[in-house]
Amino acid sequence: MLWFTRVSWLLIVFFSWAAPAATKYLSSSTTLSVVGPAPATDFETRCKQPGVIRCHGFEPGSRFNVNDGSYARNYDSDYYPPSGSTAVRMNLDSAQKASGASSLKAFIPAKSPADSSGSFVVRFSDDGKTQLGLNEEFYVQWRQRFTAEMIRPFASERYSQGTAWKQTIIGAGDTLDTAGNPSKVSYSCTILEMVSNSAPITIAGKETLRYGFYHSCGYYFGMEYWFQPVNQIIMQHQGPPYCVYPNDPQGGCMLYYPDEWMTFQVHIKIGSRWASGPNDSVADSKVEVWVARQGKPSVLVFDSSKSHPDGFPIINDASLLKYGKVWLTPYMSYRDDTIAYQDAYTWYDDLIISRNKIADPK
């Protein structure tokens, strides 16, 4: 098991870097359960299902507070411009949407550094008080669209390595004081974070991107593992055909597809204790991730019970943060801003946070 985890850590290090449409809050004592798979439904119907903590449809008039660089504004800011810049490269777009009247559009300029577009933060509640910790579980679902210019690996001559972009970071809420009010800002890079990100892969001699996932800013470990039946490292868990390292000869990897609304859903089950590190298995902790192409059913792409059968190590630290924010950002560590690519875009829509598994969209 230890060797499997080290393989996963080494692989993920290579590929890694550093007002809502509807809102419903439940107390941490609420217990809910899922009975069988739910049929595909539209966004409004999914938002009304039992267990939903928050929905954000990025509709016209949605709250869009832009951070001005001051620490005091962190608690009520939604959009954070790129580091060292005041450029606003995310906006509500009525021309492209998965549902409703608009979506959140991110612009990635042809020549840009790692933080090309900034990030949009959706808290589990606007006041920051809704947070989840030990003995709780939740699901985060969103839809995302990519232009063809996004779906390619990006070389980095400056840093002598390839790079690819993040999609979302599910991370820590702000530290709360004894009265339950935010008192210390938690940023995206925390030991608690769960990250969806693209990763380069070669298929039939052509480089493209597959869906990837990892836990913790600092450890950066994922769920790849040695799969004896094919005598190779499994990079995703569906199959056959299998997604194997270093290429994808069987055509089993979940890839990205341009100009369609893909759906992503992450399930985080936090056990009875936090792990102290990536080799500290926690028996009652688990992580699962589903991905779906537009109009197709979701596929279970990552299941920690396969990579970590003794339990997934969800790491925390002495501050004992809890999950409370989702960052939407195409951040690309090691991107070389001296290389001119093509302008690229990605859109986010239909974000749902729930205590129950969320149905696929229609």
Summarize the structure.
6% of the residues lie in helices and 32% in strands. The chain is mainly beta and 362 residues long.
Question: What does the model show?
Answer:
The structure is a single chain. With 362 residues, the chain is mainly beta. The chain has one domain (2-354). It is 6% helix and 32% strand. Strands 1, 2, 4, 5, 7, 17, 18, 19 and 21 form a nine-stranded antiparallel beta sheet that branches. Strands 3-6-20-10-13-14 form a six-stranded antiparallel beta sheet, with no helix packed on it. A two-stranded antiparallel sheet has the order 8-9. A hairpin with a 2-residue loop joins strand 13 and strand 14 (206-215). The longest helix has 14 residues, at 2-15. It is globular and about 55 Å long. The chain starts with a helix and ends in an 8-residue tail after the last strand. The model is unreliable at 1-36 (pLDDT under 50).
Give the SSE layout:
Layout: H1 2-15, E1 22-23, H2 43-47, E2 52-56, E3 79-80, E4 90-93, E5 103-108, E6 119-123, E7 137-146, E8 154-156, E9 161-163, E10 166-172, E11 175-176, E12 182-184, E13 194-203, E14 206-215, E15 225-227, E16 232-234, E17 262-269, E18 286-292, E19 299-303, H3 304-307, E20 323-328, E21 344-354
Antiparallel strand pairs: 1-2, 2-21, 3-6, 4-5, 5-21, 6-20, 7-17, 7-21, 8-9, 10-13, 10-20, 11-12, 13-14, 15-16, 17-18, 18-19
